[in-house]
Each structure stands twice: as structure tokens, then as C-alpha cells.
Amino acid sequence: AGVLYSDCSDSVSTSIFGIDGTYHCGGHIVDIPFRFPLDRVTSTLARLKKFNFVDTGRATRFASLEFFVYSPWINRFVSWKLYVEATEGGDWHSRQQIRVFGYWTRADWARTILDLFFFLFIAYLIFQFYYKWKHPPSGIQVTLMRYLLHPMNIMELLNYAVFSIVFILRVLWIHRSVSADYTLSP
Length: 186
Known about the structure:
By secondary structure, the protein is α+β, with helices and mostly antiparallel strands. It is built from 4 helices and 7 strands.
């Protein structure tokens, strides 16, 4: 396990928001796979310590340790990031982020059909919203701006926007899951 430098274009990781700053996904990386035997992991960590990989007194402002675990029984990945950040005053703050996420498989087709019904329901509600503006129950026609600025209509529009964004993100997630390669190297 050697030290590599990676910028954001080489990485699938995301930025980390610390207390004092935002740290991009690149940097000097040491990859220690789970398949390494204990003696190799120990010797790698000893080399990193010997060569002062994390310079706690001078130049290092941020260090992170990231684990990924996959559970095939529940079809979920867990990303666990442990990180420390040095402030300008010399304090060190430690934090963690835990994220659980899955990927779409052909076994999820029933849930995808339910998502499509959900989208059709939202489309119907948007049509009803438009219809209520064009054909008000009181028979009194109002301008579009007055109709949109009514507090209940603002809430409805926000709900429809959130529902639509969630559906679009879900479709993008399915597309990315189908096109990704999940083979694990031995």
C-alpha cells in the first residue's frame, strides 16, 4: 500500500464540510484493503507513522479515515468517515459522518413500479392545481400571480416541487446504479 495523490477527477468521494473549512475529495491517499493480513496493515501503519504521514504539528490541516462496507443481505453500502481538522489556533476537532445507501437491482422492479404510480399521482395533482386556477369553485376568476401567492397554493407548489425533485433524483439513482460496475476485485 503506497501513498498516492488523487484529485477530485480521480475520486468518487465527496467534499467534507469541517468546522473551519470545506475539504475537497482529493489529497494524499493510502488505500489499505480489507483483504490485507493484519501484519501487512500493521507494517503499513508503522511506515506511515515513521515517515510522519500526518504531520500533527506543522502542515497537516485535515486527515480522514474512510471505511466502506457492503451488506448483500440488505443490499446496502455503509460509508463511515472519521476525520480530524486543525483550526488556525491549533485545536484539533474530530468528527464523523455515517451514510447508508443502496443501489438499484432488477429485484427492485416492484418498488420502481410504485415510484411510477407515485409520479403519475403527482402529475394528476399538478393538473388539478392548474384546473383549480382556470375553473375556480367560486366562479370568480383570479390572476395567475394572485392565485400563486395564496399561502396554501405556495405550500402546494413547494410540495409538488419537492416531490418532482425526489422523483428525478430517484430516476438518476436508478440510471447510475444500472450503469455502474459493482464487481469487487479479489
